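Thread title: Can someone regenerate the structure for this chain?

I was given the following input by a collaborator and told the matching structure tokens would be attached. They weren't. Posting the sequence so someone can regenerate them.
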Amino acid sequence: MYYPSETQVTPLTNVHHRRMLPAPGEVVVRVADRVEPTQVVAYADIPSDFRIVPAARLLGVPVSRLARCMRVNLGDEIQRGQVIAKRRGPLGRSVKSPIDGTVRARVGGRILIEGQPTTVELRAYVYGTVTNVIAQSGVVIETIGAVIQGVWGSGGDSLGVLKCLVKGPDELLEGKAIDPSCQGSILIGGSGLDETVFERAQGLQLRGIVVGGLAPDLIPHVEESPFPVVVTEGIGTVPMSRPVFRLLTTHEGREASISGRAQSRWDIVRPEIIIPLPTEALPSTQAEPGRPLTVGAQVRIVRTPYMGTVGKVVALPDHARRIGTGARVRGAEVDIGQRAPIFVPLANLEFLR
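Best answer:
Regenerated them for you:
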């Protein structure tokens, strides 16, 4: 049996979304609370950097004399630019604090200043109900809706209205299509986008972009953009798979949550789009993760020359076959709408559920 990886493209499912703080903090919601995407559910104070100021050297005094030159005490909160030590006399040298913070220590002629902590607010990200509170760490939020996972992403979390700017999944998203009506929207593209998209997006407060592919030379632009970008198929000019495009455009005009966050190790995180739907009824059968590949399964091809193409497994040959590279590999016969099924190595397939 072969167990391929899975990408979720589900029109209706029960989503359990885990929201975690980057450091221990305080959770401000309880189990069964209803939450909205922008609502703060937890927060944490992240310690700032320390600065070591060589005060004795800067003043030109022995270490033993620094105590008499101090203008602040241990534990005092100070402001950037504030004088913290000064030699006596009208022309005496002085030392100023380089940051806002708190004086923590004076050792060996140096003054240790701790910067002000940064408060990180964790927002719900989706509409839903809190089903679990993880003490000092985060929450699990349950919602019902459509879920689309990407293969690559950049940026944080956002919320906006889905807006399609292309006619088909193989069409390039061009900057000239972006106008003031796109403000506050998550734009749906096709096979990729051009560089002018980021120029036109300035000042429009875009909430995100979803495309099938992304040219490698545009990755730096995406990583610097103020909104998340989700790529559903792969790097390069790759048409968005039709089930993904159909699902996104079906819900055009609806509000959706988008996340470009990705993590490939340990606790795997995939970039995603979640579209909350006003229903409490779920399909009676939902595919369980971790299934073996079987005849009839819907799959997506993840490598060229058919990257992004979706089809159905019609046969699983018992023996390995020789492919173009000369290697003999196990594979599946997949119907992608051509006259005859194509043979695809198992390693090039993933479930689309």
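The first strand starts at residue 6 and ends at 7.
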